[in-house]
């Protein structure tokens, strides 16, 4: 009996957006208007690439970025929840699927000593160039019209489950914890026995409820959370059963 926990990162594990938090490193803690206005829907990764160039051009170095990123607060109750999962790893496999990047997530999890809680992190690959600039790439290519160009979370989840099955691992239940519009595609892939946990008041909750109103509800059960303690309470019930 094993459960798979799938976490988004921004506004789910941490209570902010890691990509917008990095702007605190910019001169006067803001971006010039022409850079801010250069974002095109579905092309966030390209936009962040330009932001990182701007930071590099302004002499922002890796250690300053790291210091800034590790001050991001975790969502209410999340430290308790991740501690609980860490103590029960024999029951839970735990992955992150996020539109952030490997450098930011690695910094934040390691600083709080939570990197061992997660079996795998699926996010946009990032690295510092020889000139000290942070560069970010697309996670993968896909053909899903619903998702941003660089990442379809449903594809990631499906490929992970297929790989696990090849290893002889199947899950009693998948619990998907997220908040954003790009979490809807993987939630629609979940089966009747699985559970989606959208964060209260965020886009994912609104999109799931719109689907229910248009009489095409998601197959899985839905449990809304506002603090990660709500998630922990559910997981405690799950392992009691």
From TrEMBL:
Substrate binds at residues 19, 99. Mg(2+) binds at residues 8, 10, 179. The gene is Phospho2. Belongs to the HAD-like hydrolase superfamily. PHOSPHO family. InterPro entries: HAD-like_sf (IPR036412), HAD_hydro_PyrdxlP_Pase-like (IPR006384), HAD_sf (IPR023214), Pase_PHOSPHO-typ (IPR016965). It holds the Pfam family Put_Phosphatase. One of its GO terms (molecular function) is metal ion binding. Its cofactor is Mg(2+). Keywords: Hydrolase, Magnesium, Metal-binding. It comes from Cnemophilus loriae (Loria's bird-of-paradise). The active site is at residues 8, 10. Gene3D superfamilies: HAD superfamily/HAD-like. SUPFAM superfamilies: HAD-like. This is PHOP2 phosphatase.
